[in-house]
Write a structure and sequence with these properties.
This protein is mostly helical and 135 residues long. The protein is built from 6 helices and no strands. It has a single domain (7-128), classed as Orthogonal Bundle (Ribonuclease iii, N-terminal Endonuclease Domain, Chain A).
């Protein structure tokens, strides 16, 4: 779907659905590359990255550097009105997490793989440095 116009993009929540899988894959790949091999440990460590709180923090790390198109997609997703948030997440964290996921989904759909890799790497790197327990 490269060269997709903004009017042709899927709904913001569909982009977030896709972006959630993309980010989860990036987290899992990073953990395996760092030598984590036990299933229980992989699951436990991945949860430090894929929660609404962590994704919200990750979005804050990259938000200042978003292009206008990226920022518009993120804003559309965070304002979608959909708030089936987990009990442990604040509405603001959930909205920012949804924005991050939709951004990643939009970059995938539009074929911007280099930008997607750059932003996921920046988010993972930033989250990695927030806790010493993480590999």
């Amino acid at each position: 779907m490269e060269n997709v116009r903004p009017s042709e993009l899927p709904d913001a929540l569909a982009l977030a659905f896709l972006g959630d899988a993309i980010f989860s894959h990036a987290v899992r790949s990073m953990l395996v590359a760092r030598g984590v091999s036990r299933a229980g440990e992989l699951t436990r460590l991945s949860l430090a990255y894929v929660t609404a709180e962590a994704q919200s923090e990750g979005f804050r790390l990259i938000e200042p550097d978003l292009t206008p198109e990226e920022a518009a997609t993120a804003k559309r997703a965070s304002n979608s009105g959909h708030l089936n948030r987990p009990r442990h997440a604040t509405p603001a964290d959930y909205r920012r997490a949804t924005a991050l996921e939709a951004l990643f989904g939009m970059l995938e759909v539009t074929g911007q793989t280099d930008r997607l890799k750059n932003l996921t790497d920046r988010v993972l790197s930033g989250l990695l440095h927030r806790e010493t327990e993480l590999p």
